[in-house]
């Protein structure tokens, strides 16, 4: 796979809606690592807002897994912070 650049995004900050399983009608580039996801291969579509428009870029399974892992870390951090105030 290609080299994803920068910090792994988390769903908390990047997405406006839930990721959905998707199969590509034609080979499509993963929005994060730039690898091609082959026609009819499984990937995830993660909606995000850009310039007021909802985009639906796709992510290969490896990148989706790292985004979900990062989301867990962010959620746990948020939870821990919240606990301080409850
Ligand atoms: Zn990828």
Description:
With 86 residues, this protein is of the alpha+beta class. Helices cover 31% and strands 23% of the residues. The protein has helices at residues 11-14, 61-83, and strands at residues 20-23, 28-29, 36-37, 42-45, 48-50, 53-55, 58-59. The longest helix is centred in the last third of the chain and has 23 residues, at 61-83. It starts with 10 loop residues before the first helix and ends with a helix. Bound molecules: zinc ion. Zinc ion (ZN) binds at residues 1, 30, 32-33, 35, 59-60, 62-63.
Short description:
With 86 residues, the protein is an alpha+beta fold. The protein has helices at 11-14, 61-83; strands at 20-23, 28-29, 36-37, 42-45, 48-50, 53-55, 58-59. The protein is built from two helices and seven strands.
Task: Describe the SSE topology.
Elements lengths: L10 H4 L5 E4 L4 E2 L6 E2 L4 E4 L2 E3 L2 E3 L2 E2 L1 H23 L3
Antiparallel strand pairs: 1-4, 2-3, 4-7, 5-6
The structure holds zinc ion.
What attributes characterize this protein structure?
86 residues; binds zinc ion; three-stranded antiparallel sheet; alpha+beta; single chain; two-stranded antiparallel sheet; 7 strands
Number of strands: 7
Spell out which ligands are present.
Answer: zinc ion
How many helices in DSSP terms?
2
Strand-residue proportion: 15-25%
The major pleated sheet works out as: 3 strands, antiparallel
Strand order of the largest sheet: 1-4-7
Question: What is the helix content?
Answer: 25-40%
Task: Give the overall shape, derived from the CA principal axes.
Answer: elongated
- Runs with pLDDT <50, length 5+? none
| Element string (H = helix, E = strand) | HEEEEEEEH
* Rg from Cα: 14 Å
What class, by secondary structure content? alpha+beta
Q: Give the overall average pLDDT.
A: 93
End-to-end distance, in Å? Answer: 43 Å
